[in-house]
Amino acid sequence: xxxxxxxxxxxxxxxxxxxxxxxxRVGATGLEHDRxxxxxxxxxxxxxxxxxxxxxxxxxxxxxxxxxxxxxSAEGVEPLRLKVDRDGPRREVSMFDRxxxxxxxxGDEVAEWxxxxxxxxxxxVRVVPGFDRDGWGETPGKVNFADAHAVLVASxxxxxxxxxxxxxxxxxxxxxxxxxxxxxVLTGNDEPHFEDRVxxxxxxxxxxxxxxxxxxxxxxxxxxxxxxxxxxxxxxxxATYRRxxxxxxxxxxxxxxxxxxxxxxxxxxxxxxxxxxxx
Length: 279
Hints:
Elements: E1 4-10, E2 19-21, E3 23-27, E4 30-31, E5 37-41, E6 60-64, E7 69-73, E8 80-83, E9 90-95, E10 98-105, H1 108-118, E11 122-126, E12 151-155, H2 156-169, E13 184-187, E14 198-203, E15 206-216, E16 222-223, E17 228-229, H3 235-238, E18 243-244, E19 250-261, E20 263-266, E21 271-276
Parallel strand pairs: 12-13
Antiparallel strand pairs: 1-2, 1-13, 3-4, 3-20, 5-11, 6-7, 7-8, 9-10, 10-11, 12-19, 14-15, 14-21, 15-19, 16-17, 18-19
Protein backbone atom coordinates (compact mmCIF):
# COMPACT_ATOMS: atom_id res chain seq x y z
CA UNK A 1 0.00 0.00 0.00
CA UNK A 2 1.49 3.32 -1.10
CA UNK A 3 -0.22 6.49 0.05
CA UNK A 4 0.43 9.50 -2.16
CA UNK A 5 -0.61 13.13 -2.45
CA UNK A 6 -3.50 13.44 -4.90
CA UNK A 7 -4.37 17.15 -4.59
CA UNK A 8 -3.04 20.32 -3.00
CA UNK A 9 -5.02 23.52 -2.42
CA UNK A 10 -4.72 26.73 -0.48
CA UNK A 11 -7.28 29.41 0.31
CA UNK A 12 -5.74 32.91 0.32
CA UNK A 13 -8.86 34.65 1.64
CA UNK A 14 -10.61 32.69 4.37
CA UNK A 15 -14.00 31.49 3.11
CA UNK A 16 -13.35 32.35 -0.55
CA UNK A 17 -12.45 30.00 -3.40
CA UNK A 18 -9.31 27.89 -3.21
CA UNK A 19 -6.39 27.55 -5.59
CA UNK A 20 -5.16 24.10 -6.60
CA UNK A 21 -1.43 23.70 -7.20
CA UNK A 22 1.02 20.98 -8.16
CA UNK A 23 3.55 21.94 -5.48
CA UNK A 24 3.60 24.20 -2.44
CA ARG A 25 5.96 25.48 0.17
CA VAL A 26 4.73 24.64 3.66
CA GLY A 27 5.55 26.89 6.58
CA ALA A 28 4.68 26.72 10.24
CA THR A 29 1.13 27.93 9.55
CA GLY A 30 0.45 25.64 6.57
CA LEU A 31 0.63 25.94 2.79
CA GLU A 32 2.10 29.22 1.67
CA HIS A 33 -0.53 31.99 1.37
CA ASP A 34 -3.21 29.81 3.02
CA ARG A 35 -5.78 31.87 4.96
CA UNK A 36 -3.48 34.89 5.04
CA UNK A 37 -6.44 37.23 4.45
CA UNK A 38 -9.85 37.40 6.07
CA UNK A 39 -13.07 39.31 5.43
CA UNK A 40 -14.48 40.88 8.58
CA UNK A 41 -17.49 42.88 9.68
CA UNK A 42 -16.73 46.56 9.10
CA UNK A 43 -18.02 47.52 12.55
CA UNK A 44 -16.93 44.88 15.05
CA UNK A 45 -14.16 43.03 13.15
CA UNK A 46 -15.84 39.62 13.44
CA UNK A 47 -14.84 37.24 10.65
CA UNK A 48 -17.19 36.45 7.79
CA UNK A 49 -17.54 32.89 6.50
CA UNK A 50 -19.64 30.69 4.26
CA UNK A 51 -21.63 29.74 7.34
CA UNK A 52 -23.49 33.03 7.06
CA UNK A 53 -22.37 34.26 3.61
CA UNK A 54 -22.39 31.30 1.17
CA UNK A 55 -21.58 33.52 -1.86
CA UNK A 56 -18.03 33.81 -0.53
CA UNK A 57 -17.38 30.36 -2.04
CA UNK A 58 -17.71 31.80 -5.56
CA UNK A 59 -15.30 34.69 -5.02
CA UNK A 60 -12.18 33.77 -7.00
CA UNK A 61 -8.79 34.85 -5.72
CA UNK A 62 -5.45 34.90 -7.51
CA UNK A 63 -2.20 35.51 -5.67
CA UNK A 64 0.15 37.65 -7.75
CA UNK A 65 3.85 38.50 -7.48
CA UNK A 66 4.46 36.06 -4.65
CA UNK A 67 1.79 37.65 -2.48
CA UNK A 68 2.44 41.30 -3.27
CA UNK A 69 -0.96 41.62 -4.98
CA UNK A 70 -4.33 39.88 -5.25
CA UNK A 71 -6.82 39.63 -8.11
CA UNK A 72 -10.46 39.22 -7.04
CA SER A 73 -13.44 38.32 -9.19
CA ALA A 74 -17.07 37.31 -8.73
CA GLU A 75 -20.17 37.09 -10.87
CA GLY A 76 -21.95 40.38 -11.33
CA VAL A 77 -19.19 42.70 -10.11
CA GLU A 78 -16.16 44.26 -11.73
CA PRO A 79 -12.92 42.40 -10.99
CA LEU A 80 -10.45 44.10 -8.71
CA ARG A 81 -6.67 44.01 -8.52
CA LEU A 82 -5.31 44.91 -5.12
CA LYS A 83 -1.81 45.87 -4.03
CA VAL A 84 -1.30 44.11 -0.70
CA ASP A 85 -0.41 46.30 2.27
CA ARG A 86 1.42 44.13 4.82
CA ASP A 87 1.68 47.06 7.23
CA GLY A 88 -1.72 48.66 6.71
CA PRO A 89 -3.69 50.39 9.47
CA ARG A 90 -4.34 48.00 12.33
CA ARG A 91 -7.85 46.70 12.93
CA GLU A 92 -8.87 44.47 15.84
CA VAL A 93 -10.45 41.25 14.57
CA SER A 94 -12.08 38.18 16.10
CA MET A 95 -13.13 34.64 15.23
CA PHE A 96 -15.86 32.67 17.01
CA ASP A 97 -16.12 35.55 19.51
CA ARG A 98 -12.44 35.19 20.43
CA UNK A 99 -10.14 38.17 19.80
CA UNK A 100 -7.21 37.50 17.46
CA UNK A 101 -5.53 40.85 17.98
CA UNK A 102 -4.68 43.38 15.28
CA UNK A 103 -4.66 42.69 11.54
CA UNK A 104 -3.59 44.91 8.63
CA UNK A 105 -6.55 46.59 6.95
CA UNK A 106 -6.30 46.54 3.14
CA GLY A 107 -8.06 49.80 2.41
CA ASP A 108 -11.36 51.29 1.33
CA GLU A 109 -11.46 50.14 -2.30
CA VAL A 110 -11.37 46.43 -1.52
CA ALA A 111 -13.64 46.99 1.50
CA GLU A 112 -16.25 48.49 -0.83
CA TRP A 113 -15.76 45.60 -3.29
CA UNK A 114 -16.45 42.96 -0.65
CA UNK A 115 -19.31 44.99 0.82
CA UNK A 116 -21.01 45.19 -2.59
CA UNK A 117 -20.32 41.54 -3.41
CA UNK A 118 -21.63 40.18 -0.09
CA UNK A 119 -24.31 42.76 0.59
CA UNK A 120 -22.85 43.49 4.01
CA UNK A 121 -20.40 46.18 5.15
CA UNK A 122 -17.03 44.46 5.22
CA UNK A 123 -13.28 45.01 5.41
CA UNK A 124 -10.43 42.85 4.14
CA VAL A 125 -7.54 42.28 6.54
CA ARG A 126 -4.21 40.47 6.37
CA VAL A 127 -2.08 38.81 9.05
CA VAL A 128 0.55 41.24 10.25
CA PRO A 129 4.28 40.50 10.28
CA GLY A 130 5.03 38.50 13.40
CA PHE A 131 1.44 37.22 13.77
CA ASP A 132 1.62 34.42 16.32
CA ARG A 133 -1.44 32.26 16.96
CA ASP A 134 -1.50 28.83 18.57
CA GLY A 135 -3.65 25.94 17.42
CA TRP A 136 -4.89 23.29 19.84
CA GLY A 137 -5.27 19.53 20.12
CA GLU A 138 -2.83 16.63 20.22
CA THR A 139 -0.19 18.67 18.37
CA PRO A 140 -1.28 22.34 18.53
CA GLY A 141 1.11 23.97 16.04
CA LYS A 142 0.65 27.48 14.65
CA VAL A 143 -2.09 28.88 12.43
CA ASN A 144 -3.00 31.99 10.40
CA PHE A 145 -6.72 32.72 9.85
CA ALA A 146 -7.81 29.09 9.43
CA ASP A 147 -10.38 28.10 12.05
CA ALA A 148 -7.78 26.63 14.40
CA HIS A 149 -5.21 24.44 12.62
CA ALA A 150 -2.57 24.70 9.91
CA VAL A 151 -3.41 21.88 7.47
CA LEU A 152 -6.61 19.97 6.70
CA VAL A 153 -5.97 16.47 5.33
CA ALA A 154 -8.63 14.29 3.70
CA SER A 155 -8.56 11.18 1.53
CA UNK A 156 -10.23 9.88 -1.61
CA UNK A 157 -11.21 6.77 0.35
CA UNK A 158 -13.19 8.87 2.82
CA UNK A 159 -15.00 10.69 0.03
CA UNK A 160 -15.71 7.45 -1.85
CA UNK A 161 -17.14 5.88 1.30
CA UNK A 162 -19.33 8.90 1.95
CA UNK A 163 -20.60 9.05 -1.63
CA UNK A 164 -21.41 5.33 -1.58
CA UNK A 165 -23.62 5.95 1.43
CA UNK A 166 -25.24 8.97 -0.24
CA UNK A 167 -25.91 6.88 -3.37
CA UNK A 168 -27.52 4.15 -1.25
CA UNK A 169 -30.11 6.67 -0.07
CA UNK A 170 -31.13 7.16 -3.71
CA UNK A 171 -32.24 10.78 -3.44
CA UNK A 172 -29.08 12.88 -3.80
CA UNK A 173 -26.04 13.36 -6.00
CA UNK A 174 -22.48 12.59 -4.86
CA UNK A 175 -20.48 15.51 -3.51
CA UNK A 176 -17.04 16.63 -4.70
CA UNK A 177 -14.01 16.93 -2.43
CA UNK A 178 -14.05 20.73 -2.63
CA UNK A 179 -17.06 20.79 -0.27
CA UNK A 180 -14.57 20.00 2.50
CA UNK A 181 -11.94 22.61 1.55
CA UNK A 182 -8.99 20.33 2.25
CA UNK A 183 -5.39 21.46 1.84
CA UNK A 184 -4.00 17.99 1.14
CA VAL A 185 -5.90 15.05 -0.35
CA LEU A 186 -4.32 11.62 0.00
CA THR A 187 -4.98 8.50 -2.07
CA GLY A 188 -3.72 4.90 -2.16
CA ASN A 189 -5.31 3.51 0.99
CA ASP A 190 -8.82 2.08 0.59
CA GLU A 191 -9.76 2.44 4.27
CA PRO A 192 -12.22 5.33 4.66
CA HIS A 193 -11.00 7.90 7.18
CA PHE A 194 -7.56 6.36 7.56
CA GLU A 195 -6.29 9.95 7.84
CA ASP A 196 -7.85 10.05 11.32
CA ARG A 197 -5.35 7.41 12.49
CA VAL A 198 -2.23 9.05 11.05
CA UNK A 199 -0.32 10.57 13.94
CA UNK A 200 2.84 11.64 12.10
CA UNK A 201 3.79 11.62 8.41
CA UNK A 202 6.31 13.01 5.99
CA UNK A 203 5.19 14.44 2.63
CA UNK A 204 8.08 15.53 0.45
CA UNK A 205 10.31 17.46 2.85
CA UNK A 206 7.39 18.45 5.10
CA UNK A 207 6.38 16.66 8.28
CA UNK A 208 2.88 16.87 9.75
CA UNK A 209 1.45 15.67 13.06
CA UNK A 210 -2.16 15.04 14.06
CA UNK A 211 -4.05 17.75 15.92
CA UNK A 212 -7.75 16.79 15.91
CA UNK A 213 -10.42 15.34 13.65
CA UNK A 214 -12.06 18.02 11.51
CA UNK A 215 -15.49 18.85 12.88
CA UNK A 216 -17.84 20.05 10.18
CA UNK A 217 -20.35 22.91 10.33
CA UNK A 218 -22.75 23.84 7.51
CA UNK A 219 -20.03 24.88 5.01
CA UNK A 220 -20.06 21.45 3.25
CA UNK A 221 -23.67 22.23 2.29
CA UNK A 222 -22.45 25.06 0.03
CA UNK A 223 -21.81 24.40 -3.67
CA UNK A 224 -18.28 25.74 -4.03
CA UNK A 225 -18.77 26.66 -7.68
CA UNK A 226 -21.98 28.67 -7.34
CA UNK A 227 -21.84 29.89 -3.75
CA UNK A 228 -25.35 28.57 -3.09
CA UNK A 229 -26.58 26.22 -0.41
CA UNK A 230 -27.11 22.77 -1.92
CA UNK A 231 -27.83 20.64 1.19
CA UNK A 232 -28.82 18.50 2.99
CA UNK A 233 -25.88 16.43 1.76
CA UNK A 234 -23.23 15.62 2.77
CA UNK A 235 -23.97 16.53 6.40
CA UNK A 236 -27.17 14.47 6.52
CA UNK A 237 -25.36 11.26 5.64
CA UNK A 238 -22.27 12.04 7.72
CA ALA A 239 -24.60 12.37 10.71
CA THR A 240 -25.54 8.69 10.36
CA TYR A 241 -22.01 7.40 10.99
CA ARG A 242 -19.55 10.17 11.82
CA ARG A 243 -20.95 11.84 14.93
CA UNK A 244 -18.33 12.70 17.56
CA UNK A 245 -19.80 12.57 21.09
CA UNK A 246 -16.71 14.22 22.60
CA UNK A 247 -17.35 17.25 20.35
CA UNK A 248 -21.02 17.86 21.17
CA UNK A 249 -22.11 15.28 18.56
CA UNK A 250 -20.77 17.29 15.63
CA UNK A 251 -19.91 15.31 12.51
CA UNK A 252 -16.34 14.89 11.28
CA UNK A 253 -14.62 14.51 7.94
CA UNK A 254 -10.86 14.80 7.50
CA UNK A 255 -8.10 15.44 10.01
CA UNK A 256 -6.45 18.67 11.04
CA UNK A 257 -2.67 18.63 11.30
CA UNK A 258 0.13 20.80 12.62
CA UNK A 259 3.37 21.43 10.75
CA UNK A 260 6.32 20.04 12.70
CA UNK A 261 8.88 20.42 9.90
CA UNK A 262 8.62 23.04 7.19
CA UNK A 263 9.39 22.07 3.60
CA UNK A 264 7.85 21.47 0.18
CA UNK A 265 5.07 19.07 -0.77
CA UNK A 266 4.23 18.06 -4.34
CA UNK A 267 1.39 16.13 -5.96
CA UNK A 268 2.58 12.55 -6.30
CA UNK A 269 4.75 12.62 -3.18
CA UNK A 270 4.61 9.47 -1.09
CA UNK A 271 3.17 9.92 2.39
CA UNK A 272 5.58 8.14 4.71
CA UNK A 273 3.54 7.45 7.85
CA UNK A 274 5.85 7.25 10.86
CA UNK A 275 3.16 6.71 13.47
CA UNK A 276 -0.39 5.34 13.41
CA UNK A 277 -3.01 5.44 16.13
CA UNK A 278 -3.66 1.82 17.17
CA UNK A 279 -7.21 0.54 16.84
